TrEMBL record:
The chain crosses the membrane at residues 29-56, 77-94, 100-119, 131-150, 156-173, 180-198, 232-253. It comes from the Bacteria. This is Uncharacterized protein. It comes from Streptomyces solincola. Keywords: Membrane, Transmembrane, Transmembrane helix.
Length: 258
């Protein structure tokens, strides 16, 4: 009837005592694929072509992590985490890829200190401050680490982003868990090899890079499934975490293989 309260999937699962793991599903996976293709296309154009989809990824990552932790609205924390990501981007553009570790680690260190100072000035209770501190530090770290796409070799970003774009939708298919997991990793490796053909990288290194990015992406996808996530969590963290989590692998494996 019109007077009934509609429960979300998360609320219904919690009320029924079912598993706290709720997979994001195909729609967020499709958005992840679109954003991955945008990252790959932007990377092919150069650092400034990559910047716009990367900033979008960092914004959605910052908002999604807070919502995943049940903190909403959290405008100050989201803005702070997002600003950390943009600062890392700016530092990378100013210093170049050769100084990427210093730019990323330096930004992360400054942002952790800034978050700590702001939380110490908060008038909230100790438990709330501690929870806010952990959420803001983690969100900032993810936004900053996502800048690894900007630090990585151009070809590595193309390969890694295409791998994530292939892996996550396959993982979201309504198949038994181990089957979709294996399928996602195979799709990542295959898309990586295909990306290698587009960029002139040998198929085996490209497939290995794609598989590594796929592993990290599927970990991010799994994290976005925890603790009875809402639809909003799925449409933010579920979209962004796979790509954000893959950035370190894209950077490190890109240096080793590309």
């Amino acid at each position: 009837t019109s007077g009934e309260v509609r429960l979300t999937d998360a609320q219904r699962a919690r009320a029924e005592g079912r598993s706290p793991v709720i997979e994001p599903g195909m729609q967020p996976a499709a958005l992840t694929a679109v954003l991955g293709v945008l990252l790959a296309g932007g990377a092919a154009l150069g650092p400034f072509g990559l910047l716009l989809p990367l900033v979008l990824l960092q914004a959605v990552t910052a908002a999604g992590w807070f919502r995943l932790n049940g903190m909403w609205p959290a405008r100050q924390g989201i803005a702070l985490a997002f600003a950390g990501g943009v600062t890392a981007d700016t530092a990378l553009l100013a210093t170049g890829r050769e100084h990427a570790p210093v730019a990323i680690i330096g930004t992360l260190g400054v942002w952790v200190l800034l978050v700590l100072v702001l939380q110490l000035r908060s008038h909230a209770g100790s438990d709330e401050r501690q929870y806010g501190l952990m959420a803001t530090v983690a969100s900032s770290a993810l936004a900053v680490l996502a800048a690894g796409h900007l630090a990585a070799a151009q070809d590595a970003v193309v390969i890694g982003a295409l791998a994530v774009a292939a892996a996550v939708p396959v993982r979201a298919l309504p198949l038994p868990g181990p089957v979709s997991l294996a399928g996602g990793l195979l799709a990542a490796a295959g898309a990586g090899a295909a990306g290698g053909l587009l960029t002139g990288v040998q198929p085996l290194p490209a497939a290995l890079l794609g598989a590594g990015a796929g592993v990290c992406a599927l970990i991010g996808h799994r994290v976005a499934s925890y603790d009875y996530p809402s639809r909003f969590v799925h449409m933010t963290a579920g979209v962004a975490l796979p790509l954000a989590a893959s950035a370190p692998a894209v950077y490190l494996l890109g240096r080793a293989l590309v």
